[in-house]
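Database export, one record per block. Field names are fixed; values are copied verbatim from the stored entry.
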Amino acid sequence: MKSIPLVILGLLPLTMFAQKQQTAPYQLKGEVNFPKGDETGRKIYLVYQQNGQLKTDSALINNNKFSFNGTADIAIKTILQFTKPNTTPEPDTDPNTLILYLNKGLTDVKATGFLSRAQVTGSPVQEEYIAFTRKYSKWDRLLRSTDRRRRNLDKKDLLKLQSLNKSIDSLQNLKMNDLSAYLNESTAKPFAIESILMYLKAKGSSLDEHKIEQYFDQLPEDQKRSVYGQEAQKMIADLKKHN
């Protein structure tokens, strides 16, 4: 019986090491192109995670340049934005928002137009992430367009309303099927948790909370512990509660 505590104590350094590995030092440098007279004094914000907690930092832009450094959960996406956090209704669609992944070292951002189109170097997964978001944003564009048509429809036109509801559900299910196929192969990717959240938020009639819970269980621990992982866990628990 005395050997059990000794085994636990022996594992403690490994556990602590694993927790420390969740964060890493980073350096982020950037350049923007504000017009003359406005290139100094504006703030830029960085929203990131550290040990599974959401953090916000800000820096003053000086001569169109800025920098951040510290430690962060670099396997979890960060958000760079001109607008103050929590003031934009849809930050993911704000052209002055850039979603990026940091590196254990220097990551460089250069924006010659909208921040969302900035060139990112030094991040090993940024290009893959951009390709990922482009692939699934097509469903969001179609859903927004169909939802606008539904909202502009006369509520008395029940047949058209029913038809548009079916179209929206069909698009939601297609998006979820696409995400499910991705997750069958890619739960180890840094943005796999984002795929799970996108699946849950699609809310199509074919949503399978048991399948998405299995995908969640396969995620790397840092993604499970992240703010996004906590959000997904809550959504899955709510679904199971009401079904």
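Remark 1: The CA atoms of residues 135 and 178 lie 9 Å apart.
Remark 2: The first strand starts at residue 24 and ends at 31.
End of record.
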